[in-house]
Amino acid sequence: SFYASVECALRGLNPFTTALVVADKSRSNGSIVLAVTPYLKRRGVKGRCRVFELPDDNSIIFAKPRMKKYLEYSTRIVEIYLKYVSFEDIHIYSVDEVFLDMTSYLSYYQKTDVEMAQMILKDIMDTTKIPATCGIGPNMLLAKIALDVDSKKAPTFIAKWTYDDIPAKLWPISPISKMWGIGINMERNLNQLGIYSIYDLAHYPLEKLQKFFGVMGEELYHHAHGIDMSVINEKLVYKPVSKSYGMGQTLYHD
What we know:
Blueprint: H1 2-11, E1 20-22, E2 32-33, E3 35-36, H2 38-42, E4 49-50, E5 61-63, H3 67-81, E6 90-94, E7 97-100, H4 106-109, H5 113-128, E8 134-136, H6 140-149, E9 158-160, H7 166-170, H8 184-191, H9 198-202, H10 206-213, H11 215-224
Parallel strand pairs: 1-5, 8-9
Antiparallel strand pairs: 1-3, 2-4, 6-7
């Protein structure tokens, strides 16, 4: 919803009460909708659909995509994060998501993790008029899942998961592709083993997962128990094997 939230901010509108989509309607009814506001999502509109799939509603505002403007807002928000933490403790995951390692900052600011989240979210709203959500966890995995599963439904837009929450919150997740890091193809492979929920995955023999999926199977097993050993500042020593560049075009029909 980030692009749609930017368009609402530029118009002085509330994305939770505004029907706005980011799409170039002038091209054709087959144009891709890049983003919709949370208001439309609650009405069942998919974030990525065609213009002709939108509800027949004259109140819907169509905003032409302007990626440069969205990147400007993304950069402004990252600059807000840098007011509170150093670059080494930030991992920019996408244009609208980052990980912040707050471990060494809570004592410095004399605040809890939730209080820090509230302060940063307020700064983002006051500075950019963009509503943000936050997931808090003891590692990147649980923070991300808390963000995806609970934060958008929370009254404060903040969701905190601990290891104690794993049986009640992580294990019931189904289909398993709803969990960060598990795609449709992996879900299909796991289903063939009788694994349909994160509980099933957490209680499947580790040796068999290693046999079927190698190192990935071991990682899946640990993730199903909420264990994630990755550290944000490891990004500074990561060197990709190669870089790739691509260009594509989305057509109106298959």
